[in-house]
Amino acid sequence: MGHTALILGDQLSHRNPALEGADRVLLIESRAALGRLRYHRQRRHLVLSAMRHFAAELRVRDDHEVVERRGVARMADVLGDYAEVRCAEPNSAPSRRALERLGARFVRSSQFLVDPDDFADWAAGRRRVVMEDFYRAQRKRLGVLIGEDGEPEGGRWNFDRDNRRPPRAGLTAPAPWLPAEDDVDAEVRLDLDAMGLPEWGRDAPRAWPATGSEARTALQDFVTHRLAGFGPWQDAMVAGEPWLFHSRLSSSLNLWLLGPGEVVAAVQDAYRAGDVPLQSAEGFVRQLIGWREYVWGMYWLRAGEWRGQNALDAREPLPAAYWGQSPGLDWNCLRSTVDGVAERAYAHHIERLMVLGNIALLAGVRPWEMVEWFQAAFIDGAEWVMAPNTAGMALHADGGAMMTKPYAGGGNYIDRMSDLCAGCRYSPRSRTGPDACPVTALYWDFIARHEQRWAGNPRMALPLRGLQRMDPAELAAVRERAARARAQLAGA
Question: Cα–Cα distance between 249 and 467 in angstroms, integer?
Fold first, then answer.
């Protein structure tokens, strides 16, 4: 007698190890899970569409009995009906705890390239647990962009100095391939309407892969048309170009429609064939087997700690502006980015870090509220991603476990890496006066608030010298401008 394989909504792979030896497959759509946060409409739609497409594939491809339970109140209301339930290790600590209490048995997952236990072994005893060291170790272990002599292709591990350029005038990228909706999507839309769950963001035709086949098409489209431009322009922010040269594959990876190994192979093959430059191949591989796997490992290394961390004692509630509820907000960078998230459930990594995350850091927003907003607002939201990326990298709530300095910047950074300031009424170089940029004022207020904390950090020496050169009257004016900026964020 086989077991019942429980397939979670972010484990939709035919390589899911829970399927091995199963005589029944169970997929549960629970209102408790769907309603845990105020999720973006398009995120809920994608997850349900992908689950239903996967169930349909299982019925065609495999010999399992496939059971879909839709609209149940809680997963617990269903699991008690089955004697032996096996599940690939869930991707969040709360899910693991909940399913353990319900008696599910876990099998080791292969959704990531590095198991959390292996990451912990790698990190043990290290003076610093930084991404660069981890990334190089994984390149060597996996043989990715490594020459026959065992050295990195091109003689360098890191092509950052060739990448991450400011946008040039008129920078555009080829439009990405988009899937076509089908009857499953129409059914999902009707079901979501009937549920009436609190949600955010605009409904729209599904723009993200919901099947493995669609995800592989999206991968090939990226490699063929946009990967070559990814390296140099990965940090550029351009009005009217929401995708630019980005892959749009994170939701497919996070739902396990694609495996990271097949993405890495496609990128490496394109470089070997001479179709993309090394700097772009390396830049993307760094994001995938470097940063993504590092974030996964760091999440589990500190799984019991993320929620409670608040090293900077940030106490401001999540601003209304992040829900688009600050009608007087005239900061072009934040307003246009939030509008884009509402429209597409998406912003690329530098918009997340240096606009959304940076402004929350400078304003002193409570870390876990920002983590949950990122989880709910984005098409690829997941706790394992957003806790380290938001609380750790963006908000420095971990006190420096991930980043040795806070990722803080004023309006000048946004101006250098985007064309957003050109359409704004504020001057990024002004911190006081009628044209003072609110982000710049918040930046200097942030440095002043935490001056003693940064005093021993050599990487913060430059902004501290700038603060010390500011006379008391100017600093008082800056801090008053920052207070008005926080009020604006709150919708006052």
Answer: 41
Our separate counts of H helices and E strands in the chain read 23, 5
The answer to whether position 391 is within a domain reads yes
Element housing 24 (H / E): strand 22-30
3-class DSSP state of 237: strand
Q: Is residue 452 in a domain?
A: yes
65 forms bridges with which residues in the sheet? 24
pLDDT, mean of residues 5-20: 97
Between CA 247 and CA 225 the distance in angstroms is 10
Q: Is residue 83 part of a domain?
A: yes
Q: Are residues 247 and 292 in the same domain?
A: yes
Does 358 share its domain with 437? yes
CATH number at residue 461: 1.10.579.10
Q: State mean pLDDT over 103-112.
A: 97
CA distances from 20 to 14, 15, 47, 258 (A): 10, 9, 23, 19
Work out whether strand 3-6 and strand 65-72 pair parallel, antiparallel, or are unpaired.
unpaired
List the structure tokens of 170: 């008129």
* Helix, coil or strand: residue 228: helix
- pLDDT value at residue 77: 93
Domain CATH for 166: 1.25.40.80
Query: Do residue 172 and residue 289 come from a single domain?
Result: yes
Residue 350's CB is within 10 A of a number of other CB atoms, namely: 21
Q: How far is Cα 185 from Cα 299, in angstroms, rounded to an integer?
A: 33
Q: Rounded to 5 degrees, what angle do the CA atoms 418, 478, 451 make?
A: 90
Segments forming the whole domain that contains residue 147 = 116-176+226-301
Same domain assignment for residues 126 and 92: no
pLDDT of residue 81: 92
Q: Average pLDDT in the 336-344 region?
A: 98
What length does the chain have?
Answer: 492
Which pTM was predicted?
0.96
Compute the distance between CA of residue 7 and CA of residue 183 in angstroms, rounded to an integer: 22
What's the pLDDT band for 97 if we cut at 50, 70, 90?
Answer: very high
- Per the structure, the count of domains in the chain is 3
Report how far residue 77's alpha carbon sits from residue 74's, in angstroms, rounded to the nearest whole number: 5
Identify the domain boundary among 59, 87, 107. Answer: 107
Write the DSSP symbol of residue 26. E
In a domain, 170, yes or no: yes
The mean per-residue pLDDT over the stretch 337-360 comes to: 98
The CATH number of the domain holding residue 37 is 3.40.50.620
Q: For a pLDDT cut of 70, what percent of the chain falls above it?
A: 100
Residue 162: predicted pLDDT: 86
Q: What is the pLDDT of residues 446-481, one digit of tens each?
A: 999 999 999 989 999 999 999 999 999 999 999 999
**Mean pLDDT, to the nearest integer, of 173-181?**
98
How many C-beta neighbours within 10 Å does residue 439 have? 30
Same structural domain for residues 397 and 286? no
